[in-house]
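Action item from last meeting closed. Structure (514 res):
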């Protein structure tokens, strides 16, 4: 992770799976803890749209599995009488289970599930759709469509209208109007847009680069395609925030490309949540200490689209960075209400609880994160320190080993530093120092950013290397809100009274932070 990985995703999910450490909610139920005890009854008109099955098995059309489901769900969500689960919630609910409507429906806590399949050949597509009522599993409505691919927009509109009618009854004129609203009238541009969304969801350097190319193709065909322009801006913002190197494009140029796309998107439609979310991230990256305009932009995104879990998550993270922890927790919980199986939000809300010294709540949230995603190595690392503070060395040791097992190559400090803290807690500072010597190796040739500092400095401090810990704190770059936020964690408590530490905190403090 480079020093530009300032990001909105401290809890990255990369690397091979590992068996999760035993996790449990405070009441003894299994995570995620939002589903502890009794869940509320699903809303009468609640519905989730499952990924469509690609019958042809041609991976060239894999993007349509998610694209069809996401766009139908997005269209239906315009009808206020419907309670439509977000595409992200549906993806999480389908992960790791047989694509059975009743299983997915229980995970989504909905009354209805839409399932379907498609077969594409040449310039024609056949789509079959079914509406399943739960818990009975009875089929309430079904239809098949065989059309030219260029009619895909019209078919999606028909499906959304038919499903909405089957659930809510006869549609009002204004509801029919919003269902008929199309993102573009150019079918080829729309096809590029769906492909781009598929690549963007991969959250990999190659995937995001390919997404930008596809969005650009869509805009070449329809320059007024505002949603595509907003997604270009978001792609640049995410790419920059994750610290990836864009081939041949310097960081500042990447930000400039993102701002240009965001400005154009918002000029086309000032109500685009993706446009404001992208702008907020870009502003944060441009002004890491003052955050000029970033909070206002990110606050606007979920206000414009209250059903956007990503927008709530991004807003919550920035609130935490300026010390508004209670508001941050509230925003994270809004994201989790929309997508209860969103592991990254469970991990991030745990950070806010940890800073507030609410370790029991932090532990429950981290339990949820690792139960939902066995590859979320930062949560294993963070849970190590929570267990140590709670006096459970055995659990801390298990988490440190799990963090080491799933940490990506070059980022082994996620496991080595927690192991050092455990060894020191058990009285073996010699082993702790050897572990930290190994953890420091990558930073001989690269700067220490705020995220690595969150693990490296407490590890050095625990190993008895107080002066070395302070030395590295003074070398962290960039100074700014993220570093200030990182230094609030309780694992820095042993260093908090040091003037050198306090100086770095003061140099990083964002305006308005306590």
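Sequence:
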């Amino acid at each position: 992770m480079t020093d530009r990985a300032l990001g909105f995703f401290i809890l990255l999910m990369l690397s091979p799976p590992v068996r999760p450490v035993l996790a449990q909610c405070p009441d003894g139920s299994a995570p995620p803890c939002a589903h502890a005890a009794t869940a509320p009854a699903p809303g009468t008109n609640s519905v989730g749209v499952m990924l469509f099955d690609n019958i042809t098995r041609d991976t060239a059309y894999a993007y349509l599995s998610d694209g069809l489901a996401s766009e139908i769900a997005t269209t239906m969500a315009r009808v206020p009488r419907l309670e439509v689960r977000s595409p992200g919630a549906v993806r999480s609910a389908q992960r790791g289970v047989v694509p059975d409507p009743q299983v997915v429906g229980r995970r989504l806590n909905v009354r209805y599930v839409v399932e379907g399949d498609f077969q594409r050949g040449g310039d024609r597509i056949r789509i079959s759709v079914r509406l399943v009522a739960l818990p009975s599993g009875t089929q309430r409505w079904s239809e098949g469509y065989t059309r030219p691919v260029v009619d895909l927009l019209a078919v999606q509109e028909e499906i959304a209208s038919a499903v909405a009618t089957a659930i809510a009854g006869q549609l009002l004129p204004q509801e029919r109007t919003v269902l008929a609203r199309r993102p573009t009238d150019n079918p080829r541009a729309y096809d590029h847009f769906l492909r781009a969304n598929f690549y963007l969801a991969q959250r990999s350097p190659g995937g995001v680069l390919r997404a930008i190319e596809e969005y650009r193709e869509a805009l070449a065909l329809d320059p007024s395609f505002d949603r595509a322009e907003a997604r270009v801006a978001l792609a640049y913002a995410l790419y920059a925030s994750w610290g990836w190197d864009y081939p041949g494009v310097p960081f500042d140029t990447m930000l400039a490309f993102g701002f240009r796309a965001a400005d154009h998107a918002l000029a086309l439609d000032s109500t685009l949540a993706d446009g404001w979310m992208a702008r907020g991230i870009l502003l944060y990256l441009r002004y890491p200490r003052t955050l000029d305009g970033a909070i206002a932009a990110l606050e606007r995104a979920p206000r414009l689209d209250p059903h956007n879990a990503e927008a709530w998550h991004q807003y919550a993270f920035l609130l935490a960075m300026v010390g508004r922890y209670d508001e941050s927790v509230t925003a994270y919980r809004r994201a989790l209400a929309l997508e209860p199986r969103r592991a990254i939000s469970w991990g991030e809300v745990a950070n806010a609880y940890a800073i507030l010294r609410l370790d029991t709540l932090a532990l429950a949230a981290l339990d949820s994160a690792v139960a939902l995603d066995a590859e979320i190595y930062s949560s294993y690392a963070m849970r190590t320190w929570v267990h140590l503070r709670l006096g459970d060395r055995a659990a801390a040791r298990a988490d440190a080993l799990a963090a080491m097992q799933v940490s990506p190559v070059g980022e082994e400090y996620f496991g080595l530093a927690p192991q050092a803290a455990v060894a020191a807690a058990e009285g073996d500072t010699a082993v702790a120092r050897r572990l930290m010597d190994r953890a420091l190796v990558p930073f001989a040739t690269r700067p220490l950013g705020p995220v690595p500092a969150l693990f490296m400095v407490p590890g050095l401090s625990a190993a008895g290397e107080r002066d070395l810990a302070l030395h590295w704190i003074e070398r962290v770059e960039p100074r700014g809100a993220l570093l200030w936020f990182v230094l609030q964690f309780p694992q820095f408590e042993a260093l908090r009274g040091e003037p050198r530490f306090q100086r770095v905190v003061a140099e990083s403090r964002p305006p308005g932070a306590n």
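Note appended to the action item: The longest helix spans residues 251-268.
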